[in-house]
Amino acid sequence: MQEATEVHPDDEAIASGFAQLYEGLRRLTPRDGLSLTAASVLRRLERSGRQRLCDLCGPEGVTQPAMTQLVTRLEKDGLAERGSDPADGRVVIVSITDAGRAAVERRRARNAEALSEHLRALPTEDRAAILAALPAMERLSGLVAEQPQ
Amino acid sequence: MQEATEVHPDDEAIASGFAQLYEGLRRLTPRDGLSLTAASVLRRLERSGRQRLCDLCGPEGVTQPAMTQLVTRLEKDGLAERGSDPADGRVVIVSITDAGRAAVERRRARNAEALSEHLRALPTEDRAAILAALPAMERLSGLVAEQPQ
DNA sequence: GATACTTGTATAAGTCAGTGATATAGTTTC
DNA sequence: GAAACTATATCACTGACTTATACAAGTATC
Q1: What b-and-e string marks burial along A15-31, b requiring 16 or more CB atoms within 10 Å of the CB?
Q2: Which of A83, B19, B59, B67 falls 20 to 30 Å from B13 in CA-CA distance?
C-alpha cells in the first residue's frame, strides 16, 4: 500500500523545516483585509505587469470564477483595474493601480517589521546562515513558480 | 506620514525572500480537504499531545468559536476526538486519532515529495546552503510560535 | 451555602473567499 | 455564416472564519 517514495532524507528535513517556517510566517502575516490570494495577485501584477485575467488563475491556483470575483473585489477597493485588449474583445487585462502598489508596499513593510522583531532575537550566526541561503531559496521559489500546473 | 522603520536592510531581504518562498510553499501545499488551520492543529496535537480546546486558539491565531467549529469538523471526519477533564467539567480535551495521525503523515509525505521534485533541480551548493540554514530557520520558527499574541 | 464573578465551550447570524455548473459574448474555422 | 471554441461573468452553494451572546461549571465572598 505504501508507495516507494523517492525522497532523499535531506529533502524530508528541508520539507519539515519549511513546513514549520510556513506556519510561523502564516502567523506573522498582517491582517490588512487582503486574502492570501489577493496579496499574491497584487504582488504578481506589480512584479510582472498587467495580465489577462485567466493567465492569473493557473499560477495562483484558483479557478476562473474565483479570479473574476477576486478582481472584482480588488477593483472595488481601487487596488486593481480592468482594461480591455483591442485585439480581442473577450479578454480582460488586469493591472495594478497606484493604490494597489501602495497596499503591497505597506504589507511588505509590516511583514518585514514583524519578522525583523524575531530576527533580532536570533544569534548572529543564525542570521548569517539564513542570509547565505537566501539566493538558493529564491531560486527554489522561482522553480516552483514556473511549474506548469 | 512615513514611520521611521527600524528594520535592518538584511531583514528586509530576508522578509522578501521568505515571502517568495511562502508563495511557493502555498502552491505546493496538497489539497487534501484540510484547511491550513486544520492541518496545523493536527500537527500540533501530534507533536505536543492532547490539549484543552482553548489552549489551541491562541497559538493557531483563531478565535474560540472558530476552534470549536474546527474541532467539530475534525471530529466528524474522525481525525480528532473530544474528551473531558475529570478535574474540571467545563473543559474539552482535544486529542488526535490514529486516522488523524495518518492524515498528517500523508500530508507530510505528499508535501515532501512535491518539494523534493524541485529540490532535485537545484544545484548542489544551493541545497547545501538551505540545509545549513535549516537549524537557524527552525529556531526562528520557534521564536515566532512562542510569541504571546 | 446563596450571590455574584469568572472561565471554558457552544450557538447564532453574518461575511468572505472559494467551488462547479452554466450562461454569454467575442473569435476562429470551415 | 453556423458550429465550435475561448474568455469572462453569473449563480447557487460550501467552508472557514468573525462578533455577539448564551450557558454551564468553577471560584470567591460574605
Answers
A1: bbbbbbbbbbbbbbbee
A2: B59
